[in-house]
């Protein structure tokens, strides 16, 4: 398991695993440290494409970090995956999907990247066999100008949500590998059921993708998120009965700190909690440090 998923009311939420939740394996496997950046990419793309196109998208709600986990929340999209349809129904959906692919290709840039972000997250197929498993990519500052098109890079049937009755696309989801890339990065995996990676007699472009990344980008090794306890250098938690209040006591030049987690209500809906470290005694120290991103 790499992440957790929740459906809460009209929200779809996913979060990274905290380190104590990782599965223990013989190979010491760990989830990719790139997940938070991938979801930041997804969020930035939802905003960008929402302003630039009429492509159906889930509505972004929140992204934030809390106590060693990163959260990504969108409006829950009704419908079924394109992969669940009959072949005849898929042909109807494909006609609309190709219109949206054409819209993406009409968006162009002379440099690769994601609007509002400094890093690129390579398509999942590129990281097969754990190649550069924890690496994101920053385009080199002297990269040659070119013609880059907007790609989804995980556009399989599983990421196309459809109204089962009208066969209209309700949303295209999971944009975490998207951005401006060489056009050939976008492979037509929507033509068949299965993962967004080559199999059978399909073209295997993974080595070509890797060569392009190494030639045109700088590797950025990502680090796993740390819990609040780890950020403060150790210490122990004590948990009162109240589910929305947790106190943390740790010596720091004889000053006392507490951690409060408060649920914020707005527009009739309980939003995700934020965590704030509050300094309880006078003098220098950490005062009002907001630890939720």
Automatic annotation (TrEMBL):
SUPFAM superfamilies: Protein kinase-like (PK-like)
Transmembrane segments: none
Occurrences of domain Aminoglycoside phosphotransferase (ranges): 129-179
Pfam families for this protein: APH (PF01636)
Listed name of the protein: Aminoglycoside phosphotransferase domain-containing protein
């Amino acid at each position: 398991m790499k992440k957790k998923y929740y459906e809460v009311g009209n929200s779809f939420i996913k979060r990274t695993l905290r380190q104590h939740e990782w599965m223990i394996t013989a190979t010491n496997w760990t989830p990719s440290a790139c997940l938070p950046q991938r979801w930041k990419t997804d969020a930035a793309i939802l905003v960008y494409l929402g302003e630039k196109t009429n492509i159906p998208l889930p509505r972004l709600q929140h992204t934030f970090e809390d106590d060693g986990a990163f959260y990504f929340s969108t409006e829950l999209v009704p419908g079924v995956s394109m992969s669940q349809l009959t072949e005849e129904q898929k042909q109807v959906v494909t006609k609309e999907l190709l219109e949206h692919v054409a819209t993406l290709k009409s968006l162009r840039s002379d440099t690769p990247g994601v609007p509002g972000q400094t890093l690129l997250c390579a398509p999942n197929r590129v990281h097969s066999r754990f190649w550069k498993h924890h690496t994101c990519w920053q385009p080199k500052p002297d990269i040659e100008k070119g013609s880059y098109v907007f790609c989804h890079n995980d556009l399989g049937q599983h990421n196309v949500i459809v109204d089962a009755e009208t066969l209209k696309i309700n949303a295209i989801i999971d944009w975490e590998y998207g951005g401006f890339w060489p056009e050939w990065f976008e492979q037509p995996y929507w033509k068949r059921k299965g993962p967004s990676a080559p199999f059978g007699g399909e073209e295997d472009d993974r080595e070509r993708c890797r060569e392009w990344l190494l030639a045109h980008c700088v590797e950025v090794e990502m680090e796993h998120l740390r819990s609040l306890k780890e950020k403060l250098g150790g210490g122990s938690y004590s948990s009162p009965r109240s589910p929305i209040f947790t106190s943390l006591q740790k010596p720091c030049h004889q000053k006392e700190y507490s951690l409060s987690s408060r649920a914020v209500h707005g527009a009739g809906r309980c939003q995700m909690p934020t965590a704030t470290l509050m300094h309880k005694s006078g003098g220098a120290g950490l005062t009002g440090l907001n630890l939720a991103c």
